[in-house]
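Inverse folding, one chain.
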């Protein structure tokens, strides 16, 4: 980040940094402890850097996206964890997520496009859950 930030600041006075965190960085996980801890640290880093950039008045915004259960290769690796098959993992995810399905990579991409857009010019320091409502319960 220390090498990238000066490059962003040399631009047109606008910029957006979007970190990819995780809902486990918000609520923790008893199974993936190291992963949760690293994502929690990234959330703290996002907020601290957002404050630093805002204080510098350099037009750089810093936010994070916190994906929930997303149908990616990481999700596919749940097969075999605690004796689950990939079908069991999908069924379990559907039961946990209020919207009834795992997310898709494009769900995360759409959130990133929104945060990077000029329409989000007054948004900095947030963590946007893209989790199908997982954190609601």
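Residues assigned per position:
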């Amino acid at each position: 980040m220390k090498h990238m930030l000066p490059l962003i600041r040399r631009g047109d006075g606008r910029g957006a940094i979007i970190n990819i965190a995780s809902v486990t960085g918000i609520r923790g996980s008893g199974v993936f402890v190291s992963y949760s801890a690293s994502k929690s640290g990234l959330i703290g880093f996002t907020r601290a850097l957002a404050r630093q950039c805002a204080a510098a008045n350099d037009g750089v915004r810093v936010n994070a996206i916190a994906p929930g259960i997303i149908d990616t290769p990481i999700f596919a690796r749940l097969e075999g964890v605690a004796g689950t098959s990939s079908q069991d993992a999908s069924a379990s995810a559907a039961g946990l997520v209020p919207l009834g399905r795992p997310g898709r990579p494009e769900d995360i991409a759409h959130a990133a496009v929104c945060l990077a857009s000029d329409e989000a010019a007054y948004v900095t320091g947030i963590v946007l859950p893209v989790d199908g409502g997982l954190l609601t319960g």
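Helices lie at 4-9, 24-27, 33-56, 73-76, 86-96, 105-116. The first helix runs from residue 4 to 9.
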